[in-house]
Amino acid sequence: MSSLEQQKPIIKGRGAQKNVRNRFFELSHEMRDDFLEFCAKEGEDADKNKTVYLETFPKTIVNKVKSPDVGMTYSMNMYQGCEHGCIYCYARNSHEYWGYSAGLDFERRILVKKNAPKLLEDLLKKKSWQAQTIVMSGNTDCYQPAEKTFQLTRQCLKVFLKYKHPVAIITKNALVLRDLDLLKALHKDGLVAVNISITSLSEDTRRILEPRTATIKKRLETVRTLSENGIPVNVMLAPIIPSINSHEILPMANQVSESGALSIAHTIVRLNGAIGEIFSDWIKKTMPDRAEKVLHQIESCHGGTLNDSRYGTRMRGEGKIAEQINMLIRLAKQKYFKDKMMPRLNTQLHEQYKEGQLKLF
């Protein structure tokens, strides 16, 4: 890191504090000291820090999930990249496949799949398609800020409703309540479940971990509103990061249970691919007093490395710290969710609605 880069202030409203090299590219670029010095003298910004939306044209929108420990069979993502800017996000690595950096590019270059609703409808109409729950946001958040402009998630929910097909949602944005009318209609036939991600009860922690997400207060209100309308809600306490939010497991579980959540799930943070470098750079700039401690504790959960791709252990970790975290989660489930359970979604109706309406014969 150059001397002038070290002096740069924290980039507000962003998680990553730099772009890292794309592993698929032979060449890379960097901010040179002489360019930074020129910008400083001229009073110009070396980096405009603007979000750009780029339309893409995929041929399919629903993906088969092959990972054995993710907990979903099919997923779909209307957007690639995510303006929420969560520093730990595993989806950052996928941005490299599109030719961008997993760092700031992931938050500022958002790829938009405007044909997603049409692609989804084409799939659900196929005679060969057998109904299984499709999860929106298997990679990036379907209710990120771009959704306010493009409304692709809302359009896709209308398709699911038309064909009576089960859908699950993962989000950390209160914007999901905009579509409460559609969620209620889907719920009448047991076709929807919502997973809300909550990683802390502290706004200070939330603000630096997930800079452009809904506040914790709004997320808890979202859990309550959905639950009051009968829509089943699971809360993702994910990821748990040692010495950042690991001490909040029981208070978080208590709060979300009181708000109406039917269950909780968790993962222990893992920093695969480019995320290790991005996270390490971020924590040394935002939490210099405990950066090394946190990094070492993360390593202790994954066999001495930040990068853990081992099925079966990558989500839950290993070692003493991981054992303590997993034990607290088990205690939280027993204490706050003993008599609660998420329902199975209805896969029986779709075959009768292949044409978008109930078959008479």
From TrEMBL:
Keyword Transmembrane helix among record annotations: no
Keywords: Iron, Iron-sulfur, Metal-binding
Annotated SMART domains: Elp3
Pfam families: Radical_SAM
InterPro entries (UniProt xref): Elp3/MiaA/NifB-like_rSAM, MJ0683-like, rSAM, rSAM_sf
Annotated ranges, domain Radical SAM core: 68-305
GO molecular function, one term: metal ion binding
Segments passing through the bilayer: none
NCBIfam families: rSAM_PA0069
Protein name per UniProt: PA0069 family radical SAM protein
Protein's organism: Mangrovimonas spongiae
